[in-house]
Amino acid sequence: MKIAPSILSANFLKLEEEVSRINVSGADFLHIDVMDGHFVPNLTFGPAIVEQIKQVSTLPLDIHLMVENISFFVDLFALLTPRFLSFHIEEEKHIHRIVQKIRDYGISPAVVVNPHTPLELLKYILPDVDMVLLMSVNPGFGGQKFIPATLDKVRQLREMIDDASLRCLIEVDGGVSDLNARELFDVGADILVAGSYIFGSTDYQEAVCKMRKS
Ligand code: DX5
Ligand code: ZN
């Protein structure tokens, strides 16, 4: 089980200190939520800020694009060589083309699906991506409540991946904490994103440890 703290819930006035604390927390990736104010009703970081975060982070970046104009943003953020670069399939007509574009940059492509988006839409793209991110809240904000139907969705996606003998990872994002980490692991999640749970705790290492222990 890998853990990716979402920097969205960090104290932005102390960004360097926050990233440094995550570096030694035992987490595996640093999750970066890029929002454009169009695809989602919120606005976050551009590439200049993410580049500075990258300079301080010893963890590989996991960049989650919640944007329109995906191709344009892929070009901007691919230059920062994240470990994963993910985009929402709801927003893209040419999913395969974008996946290929990300791969051509030497980066692992990942697709994201909103809570209401059916898994059937992933069937023909699954062999081409390294990860699927299942949203367990409506994208746009940290600190929302986990949507319980996600558990069944993870289970079904795990079956689809295993039945086709694929190696694609499953990431879950939104409302994740030590309280549901165990259930998510049991149904087949590989990477858990946690924002408010980790940054809302006083000891980040302990929070990450609690998620693993559960
Ligand atoms: C929501 C973002 C999440 C968010 C998770 O749109 O994609 O990554 O930061 O925050 P929590 O863990 O607080 O739900
Ligand atoms: Zn996210």
Describe the overall structure.
There is one protein chain. This protein is an alpha/beta fold and 214 residues long. It has one domain: Aldolase class I (TIM Barrel). It is 34% helix and 19% strand. The chain has 8 helices and 8 strands, in the order E-H-E-H-E-H-E-H-E-E-H-E-H-E-H-H. The chain has an 8-stranded parallel β-sheet. Helix 4 links the parallel strand 4 and strand 5. The protein is globular and about 45 Å long. It starts with a strand and ends with a helix. The model has no long low-confidence stretch (mean pLDDT 98). Bound molecules: D-xylitol-5-phosphate and zinc ion. Zinc ion binds next to strand 2. InterPro entries: Aldolase_TIM (IPR013785), Ribul_P_3_epim (IPR026019), Ribul_P_3_epim-like (IPR000056), RibuloseP-bd_barrel (IPR011060). Its cofactor is Mn(2+); Zn(2+); Co(2+); a divalent metal cation.
Considering the chains and any ligands shown, give keywords for the structure.
single chain, binds D-xylitol-5-phosphate, 8-stranded parallel β-sheet, carbohydrate metabolism, globular, TIM Barrel, cobalt, 214 residues
Question: What is this entry, summarized?
Answer:
Its EC number is 5.1.3.1. By secondary structure, this protein is an alpha/beta fold.
